[in-house]
Amino acid sequence: MTRLRYVPRPLGQADGQPFGSAEEAWMWFGACQLARAVGARLQAGQGDVARPCDPDDIYRAVQRLYRLRRIGGRHLRVLGRFAASQCPPDPRAGDGAGQAVLWAEALDYLDVDLRQRGIVA
To answer: H or E stretch including 117?
Structure first.
């Protein structure tokens, strides 16, 4: 008697429209997290625009950068704060210039990682 084996099907080119920038991807992740916090259940294919990833893929990319020490705890705090407010830091609006620098550094590293994965065009 033959034994059935589970063989995952190969994933081809990811379907969906890639993000224009790492900032856009991060803000989308922040919006998804805010929706989850109020009880929404996220499922693929239910948004206005199909994306080539899940929100958790972006989270894992940031966590990988942290583990590799490309970004630090200060970067994570700034990313989290401005993802929750859905607005990037603006020194003219009272956000510190240091926060804007940390934001830019973190997104630069994230951009490289997400481009390699096809999440950002």
So the answer is: none
Question: What is the rounded CA–CA span in Å between residue 46 and residue 94?
Answer: 37
Assigned token pair, 24: 């856009």
Residue at token pair 């693929």:
44
Q: Where are the domains of the chain?
A: 55-121
- For 100, other C-beta atoms within 10 Å of its C-beta total 17
Burial 15-33 (b: 16+ CB within 10 A, else e): ebebbeebbebbbbbbebb
Task: Please state the rounded mean pLDDT for residues 95-117.
Answer: 94
Residues 42-79 pLDDT 10s:
666 667 788 899 999 999 999 999 999 999 999 999 99
pTM comes to: 0.82
